[in-house]
Every structure is written in structure tokens, then in C-alpha cells.
Amino acid sequence: xISKNDMEENNSPVAENSQSxxxxxxxxxxxxxxxxxxGVIVIILLATMFYPNLTGNVVSGSNAGGKLVDYLNTRxxxxxxxxxxxxxxxxxxxxxxxQNQTIxxxxxxxxxxxxxxxxxxxxxxxxxDTPTPTDSQPQTLTKSDKPTVELFVMxxxxxxxxxxxxxxxxxQALGSKSDATIRFVHYFMHGEKEELETYNQVCIRExxxxxxxxxxxxxxxxxxxxxxxxxxxxxxxxLNSCLANNNTKAKQYYEVxxxxxxxxxxxxxxxxxxxxxxxxxxxxxxxYLKTICGAFNTAPTAECSKQLSSASPSPGFGTAxxxxxxxxxxxxx
Length: 333
Prior knowledge:
Layout: H1 4-9, H2 13-28, H3 34-50, H4 61-76, E1 81-87, E2 91-98, E3 101-108, E4 113-114, E5 119-120, E6 148-153, H5 158-174, E7 179-184, H6 191-207, H7 212-222, H8 225-231, H9 236-264, E8 271-274, E9 277-279, H10 285-293, H11 301-304
Parallel strand pairs: 6-7
Antiparallel strand pairs: 1-2, 2-3, 4-5, 6-8, 8-9
Helix pairs in contact: 5-10, 6-9, 7-8
């Protein structure tokens, strides 16, 4: 049996480091495997046996579940919804819906702690996402005469599409002054449609590059690929040739992106890489331009002085602007 002294010994720098690792895992994979979750539940249940007053006043399962869902939405950028709650004695088991999946999560009975290392759900909790750089907190960028800019996304990730809408005007403003590429992460999260569209886009990018951004801007409006192939004037015979034989050629192009994504340690969509190093930027066009211009040894005055929109695009498809600060650091992970 675990003693009270054993519990006190766990309140150490080693234990704190373990909690820090769990926080990192929540950022990159909010839904850890069921085995790991159950292991944490056992620890929490044992802890509450020795510390029965840990969680204070009990609230209803729906109340605690609602608080947990609100918290999870702040960590994932939204999309989590409450289904039901079940009393498990010392904690509530809460069923939630996320990305078309029904997932069990757990919360203490006062609605204050998400049961994965007992993370307090209060406003004082520091956000896990890397903060957007500001003038008072400039980031250090690796500089070059002609910065290499690579934005890694998933074609149907709402935050990837948000970042694409923001960065395209910055890429266009800089023209040949930078070497900018929209790339794709090394895994798919949004089903067959995402995989097929990735092959579609890598073929256009590699074989009809002059039309790629026109196609992509159209696709970001409503994800209607057929309409956008026509609007961008894509040579469909050439595209079909690239996609032939079970996407053999397209997969070869995508393999380059996958290799780079793994090399850089990309763990979410979007991820911005400048001169081979991960960089941070707000997702509006003005911020992207400023961030990229900060990576020049000598920034081109005319291009970097262009006035672009400072309104953050909305996540997902469509042309609306986002609410202030909406999903400014969220990723599909």
C-alpha cells in the first residue's frame, strides 16, 4: 500500500519534471492512450484515499464535465463537446466528442482538476502553446540573404488552413526575395480526403507551381477542388498523369515533405520553419511578413514595408476574419 510519506516524497523536483513531460504530451497529443489514462486514474484514486479533502466541494457530473470541456477547448483550439458524465466514486468519467470520436476523460468531483497529473483548470495556469512573439519579446531567428520559409500543414486542419490564408499574401509580397514553400506534415488526421488532397496539391506545387497559390487560395474558400482546378487554369491532363498508378509520382513528391517534417521534428499543423529552425508568428499576413523579414541579413525595404492585413483569418475554410485572438496558437496535433 502507498503510504502518506510515499505521497509526500512524490512532491519533488523529479515529480515536477514528470508533470512537465505530461504537459508537453498534452500539447502534442491531447488524447493519450487509454492505458496511460487508466494508470493515471489509479494514482489519483490512491491519492484521494489519503487526501480526501484534496478537491473540496462536490458539484454535479454535468457541472464538472462542462468545466472540463471548457478547459479542453482552451487547450485544443475548440471542437470538444460534452456527451455525459458518470460518477466513479472519487472522480467523474466524462464522455466527450472530439473530431468525430467519443472519448472518455476524467475530472475531480469539484470540477477543478483534469485527471492527468491533476492539472488545475484555473486562469492562472500558464498556456502550453509557445506565445506569439511581440516587440517586447522578440524571437531569435537564423538569418540569411534569402530566407527559406517552409509552412507545414494538413490540407483539412482548420489551423493549417488559417495559417495558409495568412501567409500567402506575405509570400506574394516578398516574391523572389524569399524561398517560400507550403509543405505537408508526415501524417494525416482528417481521413482519406486529406490524403488525396495532399497528393493533389503536391502535384500542382511541383509541376504547375506558377498556378499553385492561385489554386490554394481558391481551395481555402470552400475546399471545392474541382472548381479551383478550373479557376486556376490547372492542366488536368498533367495533373492526372501525376496522380496515376495509385499516386506513385505524387507520393514521391510527398516523401520529400515527410522527410523534412520528420527532420525538423514537426508535431502539429501549422508549423513554421525558417532557415531550418522552427519559428513563431501570429497568423495574420502583416505578422507573417514581419516575421519573415526578420530572417534576412538585410531586409528588402520595399517588400518588407508593404502594408498587409493585421486581421487574423478564421480557422477552417472561408474568407471571414477570426474573432480577436481566436485560435492564434492552436494546432492539429
